[in-house]
Amino acid sequence: MASTLNKSLDDSDESDSEITPLYDDFDEPDQRTAQETKGWNLFREIPVKKDSGSMVSTAWIDTSVKIMKLVAYIVIFIAVLGSAVISKGTLLFITSQLKKDRQITHCNKALALDLQFITVHDLHERLSWLWAAWIIFSVPEFGSFLRSVRICFFKTAKKPTNFEFLVAFVVETCQVSGIALLLLFILPELDVVKGAMLMNAVCFVPAVLNVLMRDRTHPNYHWMLVLDILAVSAQATAFVVWPLLDGKLVLWCIPVATVLISLGWWENFVGPVEKHSSGIAVAINEFRNSLRSKRYYTSRILSIWKIILFLAFIMASLHMQGDNPLSFFSLVGEAFNDRTYKVDEIQITLRDIYSGLYDYKMTGEGIPGIPVAWASSLWVALIQVVAAYFCFISAKLACRILIQNFSFTFALSLVGPVTVNILILLCGYRNADPCAFYRVIPDYLFFNIPSVYLLKDYVGREMAWIWIVWLLSQAWVCVHAWLPRCERLASSDKLFSKPLYNGTLVDQCLLMNRTKDEDIVDIQIEDKEDADDVSVNSMDKGTDIRPSDHTTRIYICATMWHETKEEMMEFLKSIFRLDEDQSARRVAQKYWGIVDPDYYELEAHIFMDDAFEVSDHSAEDSQVNRFVKCLVDTIDEAASEVHLTNIRLRPPKKYPTPYGGKLVWILPGKNKMICHLKDKSKIRHRKRWSQVMYMYYFLGHRLMDLPLSVDRKEVIAENTYLLALDGDIDFKPCAVTLLIDLMKKNKNLGAACGRIHPVGSGFMSWYQMFEYAIGHWLQKATEHMIGCVLCSPGCFSLFRGKALMDDNVMKKYTLTSNEARHYVQYDQGEDRWLCTLLLQRGYRVEYSAASDAYTHCPERFDEFYNQRRRWVPSTMANIFDLLADSKRTISVNDNISTLYIMYQMMLMAGTILGPGTIFLMMIGAMNAITGMSQMQALFCNLVPITIFIIVCMTCKSETQLYLANIITCAYAMVMMLVIIGIVLQIAEDGWLAPSSIFTIATFGSFFLTAAMHPQEIICLLYLVVYYITIPSMYMLLIVYSLCNLNNVSWGTREVAQKKTAKEMEMEKKAEEEAKKAMEKQSFMRWFGNNKTDEESGSMEMSVAGLFKCMCCTNPKDHKEDLHLLQIASSMEKIEKKLDSLGATSETQENPPRRRSTMVMRGNSLAMLPEYQDSEASTDIPREERDDLINPFWIEDPNLQKGEVDFLTTAETEFWKDLIDAYLRPIDENKEEQERIKTDLKNLRDTMVFAFVMLNALFVLVIFLLQLNQDQLHFRWPFGQKVAIEYDSEQNLIEIEREYLMLEPIGSVFLIFFGMVMIVQFTAMIFHRFGTLIHLLSTVQLNWYFTKRPGVSNELAHLEKNAIEIAKDLQRLNVDDLNQAGAGDEPVTRRKTLHNLERARDTKLNNTNLDANFKRRLMSPESEIIKRLSTLGGNHAMRRATLRALQTRRESVLAERRQSQLQQARDSTSEYLYEPPRASTAAGERTGRRATGAYVNKGYEPAFDSDDEDTPRMRRNTVRFMQPNF
């Protein structure tokens, strides 16, 4: 194929041609990709969508999540608004009681209905409310103190400089002073309505900073500056309006208080730094960032200081009002105790009948001794504290699930108006009737009611209208809260500039502290390309980090070995789905300019272990094995199933490599999929070494070898992720996106895993389905919540590149096992060891329950046992390693605490003593059901276990597994007896017995847990299988695993492989030696039958082969054998000469006819050479081969006739160096192997002895205690039986109580397992809530508040559904698009022949998603596009959306042309760095372009022919030859 891929300004996106052939080798017509379809061969096989595994329909789940998102909008809106209003109202209620000698009208219902009363608050009453004010201020500050202390002690917190601490100290002191002035002096002198209004005038300093820090390059800068100045002026009016109107001296504290309060929010209104920012602005912004990074260190000191300072202001207020400041402490006992108050009778006189003003005078009469509700202040303070905290967590939740505009900003903006209106309503009721809230609010307490009776007078004469101006100015100052750009699940530190909230001004605090999200980088493809084409030498090394460096890069790293075709199909379909998703995101950004926060770049790699075998042609050559051929044959079928149309991808490009070879496919979405074929004779095989291989390739060669600055590499490494997969995994793209969300949320996250679902059929698969469910529901969720996940499974895990590159991780992972313990810990459970290394370096490992992946599980009993034989010892070894190094790990890792280590110790103790516990359970069950004595039950269980241990220590694995299978079946029957025994025990002892409670709690927790995972509730059906196999899995399996500790083979997916001549010769020698040894030790040797076939006799006779008699024996001369050998050698030489001369066999009479390669391949297996070529055959010419140029496997026709290419010199040298350093195949040193074998046996013996002794002692102690439970027991206080008897002779009633007995060890069991169950169940609930939040954050609802201001409905629809529209436009299945919106036709009306004839005329589908997208985008009026449901609900909406698509595309193209013109004028180099042009010998020899350095394509747009300068495709330089068989 030859296609020109040059950039041009006139046609920057039209370079993909639909008529470009997939393959242009016209020399061999029989190998063309597309052939003319004959009439007799028009019948089609169309791929059908299969709903299995990850593709099972989840419509009901998606609908449920959308409904929950809608409910979340409403509920969180009400929660934020309601709790903020309650918090503000209760605060004003408290401040209303702080005025000295306050008079309040009193209800007369309980006194005298015909009289009016008032009461005056005394000092005790005022002190109780001062304590309430101090409590509502101190509780959030104390919470901030506790959080800061926790982070400083258990995590890492930076220490500020003296100047930074001084600035923070001054600012916090000023804000506390302002709050104290407002609460203690100003608000008590104002009515509550004015107080609520004044709280919207505390934004003066942020308004001023907006004026100073506004971006002057913004196109609307002048209009925004005018609004900023108006906002400052509006806020400043609060300084003078009410001080001048009321004339009270204390109100002149308002300007001081509002300025000091607003000063505390300065951090959020400094920045961002722009290109034209002044040096002072840059310095202030850097200082602000430094303060934020050290927030927790200063908070633990300043929080206590603020509490003390507020207390000092309280005492100062008492002093200024003429009271003793120390009375705040000395009279606290009297204030919060039973006391009384007095009411005075008054006579009311009207002052003005029109205005409603009135006066009153004392009559001198009063009623003393009315009791006080002294706890009222505490209850109000409690309500305020709870409401403020609930508002904070609800507001934070709204931001985390991306409903900020409606449920956060809009709700908090309504707090002021709603509060004012509610207060006016309440005060109006109280003014009209002093008994309006009788028995709801104490009669002597209420808000400070406005003195004006009519609302028009209040608005006019009292200047209340000015509040509207304050409210609008506050909304403008906080306009950034309407434009959120934070990522999903953002942490509190990213959402808010301060760690917690201010309890007194919760709504203003949340709005002012909500960060502006200015640090989020918009990444667009065209900008990224322009930035990356600048020479690195022309940039400032200190600030050369580019937007493209923040792009998420995912390297799929799949390890394969001996997967079946069905397993490969599931894996490949997952890759094609991911490719389709990435392509849609790329074209949406490229052609429409959509800013996609979930955009990622993709590259898929498969590492195939043991990919080569001995060639059928010659023992000296290698060919790919049947698994590689299966992979190649399966790719087109997998692509067809995903895209629902028949697809033929371009044949893979083949590369010879130092480790074997690699095949490269270009997927429909223009992403690469590369299969690395590993030759175990050249590089180490097994999964761990494949992981070392791709870690060093991607993170070492592809990243560290780049000629970039360290800062850029740091950012790239942080955003580079390795997706570790198994070759049978099945997942959706959204599963990867959810893991990426976790990575973006926490930069300290080193690895993340999803929910693994086992796939299979049969009892073993059913057992694993429930086991995996319980393990993820409880165990992994608990580890995630209270510490870190200990194992991120290698079948589906995401690793951060930067974490793997850290010290003692990637390098230590390359250690070669040279001790027995290493074989168990390093090679048997490589994924768990890698996670252990990450944890010991301080990284966190998390689990996402919403990220689902499906993997095939063992379906046979022996396969399952062999798999767990690897897992169990490696799990125990790694946990022991972590526990042994726990002290250092706790100090290094902020997420692992002492309590978490204790929890893991408890689980490890339960694992070790689990077999003994199950053994005792079986004894008890047999004793309870069959009635046999405990001693008899002990021996009945001891015999099979002892036999099994002996067999495991002495016999082969097959025998062990056979016996384990038999014992498992027997114990399954016994477990059915246990169920009956439990039911009988509950019936006898009652529901309150210890065993009954524990049983109910255990099974109840399972059912509740399953109910909280509704999509997986079917796993409960397999609870019975799990239950009856408990003895096998928790007792026999542990025994089998430990007794086979010395067996370090893989155990699963092992198949017979073709052997080389050398291996066959070695096996033959070994068999001969074994045969001789057997003959020497045989029974017939005693009868003289020790002769071998090497002797013959001059006289021989035998009887039916029973015995043989030879006389005059002498050694054989082998003349006949040598003669036959010479004949065979001569025949072989003749055949080779004929082959070299091009002769064909007689059976090939028709040369043009295609040869059946399957028959040839099948017949060739029986034609392996049994003898080496003799010296006489050396004159036969043999093609010279170089493994890096023309290896034999490249000519294999089963790999398809794709192009052959070669690695760059730099990459070749890298692989050679890597193999020499870490991946050289381990030499088979017999002495070393014998040493390791001996060490493994010794380790096995030691572990088995320790394990057996611990469990034996445990069983012995518990069994003896059980025998003597009559003497050693506790009385269980519940469920006792009462027997009442009447003795008629003595006329007495005898009452006997029979208590249930709980032996000491039983109580220990209940406490131990009960604690574990409570911890796991509680952690599971919290984890489920976190998962729900994660799911809600990924769902978008198309309604008003999700549309940005100033955006049309069509553009809003496009921005919301851009990815789905792009997927529809790039879809390869044309038939599906043609029939969109139409149902399936009945069989009788189906036009079968018409469809077949139409298929004859239809061109071969283009397998380029990008080309399909552009073709359909260029003809938007076609009938296909009009029927796309994603464009809108009706025809008019679809047409409008099409017009919006065209407009958006044209604007993006115009911007791109302008950007390219500017780049052409400004840039000094076309490439990121100029590749050297020096030619090398290898380059000249292979005919390829030689470069002295590797030009890395991993960090450029993924194979977009419109935007990349790639070399022209050329014809193959290696010709395919017919293999000689």
UniProtKB/TrEMBL annotation:
<keyword id="KW-1003">Cell membrane</keyword>
<dbReference type="Pfam" id="PF03142">
    <property type="entry name" value="Chitin_synth_2"/>
</dbReference>
<feature type="compositionally biased region" description="Polar residues">
    <location>
        <begin position="1459"/>
        <end position="1470"/>
    </location>
</feature>
<protein>
    <recommendedName>
        <fullName>chitin synthase</fullName>
        <ecNumber>2.4.1.16</ecNumber>
    </recommendedName>
</protein>
<keyword id="KW-0808">Transferase</keyword>
<dbReference type="GO" id="GO:0004100">
    <property type="term" value="F:chitin synthase activity"/>
</dbReference>
<feature type="domain" description="Chitin synthase chs-1/2 N-terminal putative transporter">
    <location>
        <begin position="58"/>
        <end position="328"/>
    </location>
</feature>
<dbReference type="InterPro" id="IPR029044">
    <property type="entry name" value="Nucleotide-diphossugar_trans"/>
</dbReference>
<feature type="transmembrane region" description="Helical">
    <location>
        <begin position="372"/>
        <end position="393"/>
    </location>
</feature>
<feature type="transmembrane region" description="Helical">
    <location>
        <begin position="1024"/>
        <end position="1043"/>
    </location>
</feature>
<feature type="transmembrane region" description="Helical">
    <location>
        <begin position="937"/>
        <end position="956"/>
    </location>
</feature>
<feature type="transmembrane region" description="Helical">
    <location>
        <begin position="962"/>
        <end position="984"/>
    </location>
</feature>
<comment type="similarity">
    <text>Belongs to the chitin synthase family. Class IV subfamily.</text>
</comment>
<feature type="transmembrane region" description="Helical">
    <location>
        <begin position="1247"/>
        <end position="1267"/>
    </location>
</feature>
<feature type="transmembrane region" description="Helical">
    <location>
        <begin position="129"/>
        <end position="153"/>
    </location>
</feature>
<feature type="transmembrane region" description="Helical">
    <location>
        <begin position="165"/>
        <end position="187"/>
    </location>
</feature>
<dbReference type="Pfam" id="PF23000">
    <property type="entry name" value="ChitinSynthase_IV_N"/>
</dbReference>
<keyword id="KW-0175">Coiled coil</keyword>
<keyword id="KW-0328">Glycosyltransferase</keyword>
<feature type="transmembrane region" description="Helical">
    <location>
        <begin position="1305"/>
        <end position="1326"/>
    </location>
</feature>
<feature type="transmembrane region" description="Helical">
    <location>
        <begin position="249"/>
        <end position="266"/>
    </location>
</feature>
<feature type="transmembrane region" description="Helical">
    <location>
        <begin position="225"/>
        <end position="243"/>
    </location>
</feature>
<feature type="region of interest" description="Disordered">
    <location>
        <begin position="1"/>
        <end position="31"/>
    </location>
</feature>
<feature type="transmembrane region" description="Helical">
    <location>
        <begin position="991"/>
        <end position="1012"/>
    </location>
</feature>
<keyword id="KW-0325">Glycoprotein</keyword>
<keyword id="KW-1133">Transmembrane helix</keyword>
<dbReference type="GO" id="GO:0005886">
    <property type="term" value="C:plasma membrane"/>
</dbReference>
<feature type="transmembrane region" description="Helical">
    <location>
        <begin position="193"/>
        <end position="213"/>
    </location>
</feature>
<feature type="transmembrane region" description="Helical">
    <location>
        <begin position="70"/>
        <end position="94"/>
    </location>
</feature>
<keyword id="KW-0472">Membrane</keyword>
<feature type="region of interest" description="Disordered">
    <location>
        <begin position="1456"/>
        <end position="1512"/>
    </location>
</feature>
<feature type="transmembrane region" description="Helical">
    <location>
        <begin position="301"/>
        <end position="320"/>
    </location>
</feature>
<dbReference type="InterPro" id="IPR055120">
    <property type="entry name" value="Chs-1/2_IV_N"/>
</dbReference>
<dbReference type="GO" id="GO:0006031">
    <property type="term" value="P:chitin biosynthetic process"/>
</dbReference>
<keyword id="KW-0812">Transmembrane</keyword>
<feature type="transmembrane region" description="Helical">
    <location>
        <begin position="464"/>
        <end position="483"/>
    </location>
</feature>
<dbReference type="InterPro" id="IPR004835">
    <property type="entry name" value="Chitin_synth"/>
</dbReference>
<feature type="transmembrane region" description="Helical">
    <location>
        <begin position="901"/>
        <end position="925"/>
    </location>
</feature>
<feature type="transmembrane region" description="Helical">
    <location>
        <begin position="405"/>
        <end position="424"/>
    </location>
</feature>
